Each structure stands twice: as C-alpha cells, then as structure tokens.
C-alpha cells in the first residue's frame, strides 16, 4: 500500500519563560479576585498592588516587560467591545 507515512518526532515540551509564567499568574489573580467589572479606581489600585507583587516574584522581568504585562492585564479586565452588528441593532437568527 502506497501510503506515505510521516515519522513522528518526539518534541520536548516548551519551557515557559518567566514572562509567560507571570502573565498566566496575573490572569489567574484577575479571575480569582473578581477585578473584572470593578470600578476603575479600584482596578488601578489593585494593579498597583499586584504588579508590585509580580515584580518581586518575577525579579527576572525588566521594567519594560512589567509594563507590557500590566497593559495585557488592564486589557483583560476591560468589558468586551460591542461588534458592529450588536451596535447597529441587527439580530442574527
């Protein structure tokens, strides 16, 4: 039978970087602490405290990486943007 079989190669699992680990931990904290939907001033205060914790825990991260991490977290807590369909009042169905 003329099937062309590909060989499976074993891949080592990719080791997450400190940035990846910090991002995942930050998102877990966001979900656990109920930051989503909080008042903006509470979100800012929460991020100030939490980013201090993250900076101490992941000392390998640069200031730039910590800043990027905060931006990702702040975007994560934002409510979803309305789609053009939803804002125009068009219903699908």
Quick structural gist:
The chain is mainly α and 93 residues long.
Can you give keywords for this protein?
single chain, 93 residues, mainly alpha, 4 helices, 0% strand, flat
Write the layout of secondary structure elements.
Elements: H1 18-33, H2 40-57, H3 63-76, H4 84-88
Helix pairs in contact: 1-3, 2-3
Q: Can you tell me about this structure?
A:
The protein is an all-alpha fold. It has a domain at 18-78. It contains 4 helices and no strands. It has helices at residues 18-33, 40-57, 63-76, 84-88. Helix 1 (18-33) packs parallel to helix 3 (63-76) and helix 2 runs antiparallel to helix 3 (63-76). The longest helix is centred in the middle third of the chain and has 18 residues, at 40-57. The radius of gyration is 20 Å and the shape is flat.
The percent range for strand residues is under 5%
Helix content: 55-70%
Distance separating the two termini:
48 Å
SSE string, helices as H and strands as E: HHHH
How confident is the prediction overall: mean pLDDT?
A: 85
